Amino acid sequence: MAPVIVTMVRHGESKDNLSNFWAGHRDAPLSNHGNTQALRLGQAFADVPITAIYASDLNRANTTARRVWEVNKERNGGIEVPFTTSPLLREQFFGEAEGAPWDAGRYSSAHMPWEDHRAFQLSLALKIAPHAESLNDVARRADLVLRNFVVPHVLATANVPPDAKHPEQHHIMLFAHGIWLSEMMFSLKRAGDPQVRYVKSGGYQNTAWTRIELELDDPSAYHALGSEEKGANGSEPPADGEYPAPPAPSEATQPSRSNTTLTAEEADSIGMSPDIHALLPTLPSVPERNPTLPPAWPHANDLSHPTPKLRHRVVTFAQADHLNGLKRTGRGVGSAAHDEKQRGLKEFFSGGGTSPKKAQ
């Protein structure tokens, strides 16, 4: 069995990153500087074998992922890596605080007990910002990413006999956002120990990436399972792509919403302002599966069935060598929103300073 390589990437600099306000689901484009960061990242991963890419549907993360996808395709004879877009990888939703000035004194939950901090929502009850997600809500979305997108790759590599001389190795990339990436790391830890306590995994600068090796904790037990348990027959998500949220993490002390996605009708029923409607996901949580990907894990939606116990190892954290020597273009150009219509071949070789380092 070969461990699955999981590379988790934060998006390039967005226009909202240059402002001091809450911007969880706001769909700001990359800045020109952020686009150059993404191009540097693409060059660093141009020759790295990639099995699949999973990306947030928000512009800043999806565009960053596309830059890697485009260059990897170009360097590999036009072979396209399967690319899946899902709102499950979105940043934490700050409800009606979205777009409001950041004010730690008003919105911070750091002063609360640890368990309350995890369950804290900018809620109507607190008269601060209704309809926001707590960290536990974001953790549930990370759990769904693990169950629907990551576990199938782990099971696919576990299907290789232990004595195989050249076991197939999968490398998947997750493109998302700072808070979400920390929750995804927590999800991986809980898959090994459901009682583990949350510890923030540290910050990511724009386009920094972390590499993790992931495998079944007990590979021998896998080979005794039937094909249905392994997912050999495949399993498609419901037609609407919506799943109820998995059980709360072990530290959760309060109930939460059953699903992180609200319809416009549901939003209206609880008095959500019209401006918030535009920030809610419109794509299915789990889109139709690319036929070249490993079959879905049949128990992804069976929340009474625990996630396979996994073992993970962090190989490198928040790596950003590809940005060495990169400087922001002056006169406000670097901070301006990137215009896709002005893209050219020259961009693939831009960035200033020294050549970006290659990912290994």
UniProtKB/TrEMBL annotation:
For this protein, the record's InterPro entries field holds: His_Pase_superF_clade-1, His_PPase_superfam, PG/BPGM_mutase_AS, Phosphoglycerate_Mutase
| Taxonomic lineage | Eukaryota, Fungi, Dikarya, Basidiomycota, Pucciniomycotina
* Keywords carried by this UniProt record: Hydrolase
Q: Which domain of life is it from?
A: Eukaryota
Q: Which organism is it from?
A: Rhodotorula taiwanensis
User: GO: which molecular function terms?
Assistant: fructose-2,6-bisphosphate 2-phosphatase activity
Protein's name in the database: Phosphoglycerate mutase
Q: Where is the composition biased (Polar residues)?
A: 251-263
Q: Where is the active site?
A: H11 (tele-phosphohistidine intermediate), E91 (proton donor/acceptor)
> Coiled-coil regions in this chain?
none
Which residue stretches does the UniProt record annotate as biased composition, category Basic and acidic residues?
337-346
Q: Spell out the PANTHER family in the cross-references.
A: FRUCTOSE-2,6-BISPHOSPHATASE TIGAR
Q: Spell out the GO cellular component terms annotated for this protein, sorted alphabetically and separated by semicolons.
A: cytosol
Keyword field contains Hydrolase: yes
Binding-site positions, substrate: R10, H11, G12, E13, S14, K15, D16, N17, R60
